[in-house]
Design a protein that fits this description.
- The protein has 127 residues and is of the alpha+beta class.
- The protein has a single domain, classed as Intergrase catalytic core (hpI Integrase, Chain A), CATH 1.10.443.
- Helices cover 42% and strands 12% of the residues.
- It has a three-stranded antiparallel beta sheet, with helices on one face.
- Helix 2 runs antiparallel to helix 5.
- The longest helix has 16 residues, at 111-126.
Amino acid sequence: MMHPGLPTSPDLFERTRHPRHRAILALAGDGLSAADIAALRIGDLRFRGDTGRVAAVVFPRRQGCSPTMSRRRLWVVLSPRTVAAIETILTDRTEPTRPLFPSQRGGHLTADGIRKMVRRVASRTAA
């Protein structure tokens, strides 16, 4: 299920070779929005106990939810393709507050930056 806000497709994922771009496209393919992807931290990843491989991402519900809903967490089980893509960029699991996709300045990438990256990758691979 592709997120409607990001122009991505399985074919685009296959034609992209940059590991970070592949991980972002795979997460979008699993239904995460650009804002969700931008906000991900290492600590949001959940690992399988028996293999230690990435299995899901979890993060708090966004603002605007009822008080009951805001205490719950949103779980997204990742596809095998997304797990493989994330594991290629995951070098250090010891800093849970570190962004999964850090910017050049060290903070999180922005949702707008992710949208621009996806459009740029789409235009390059279409040519």
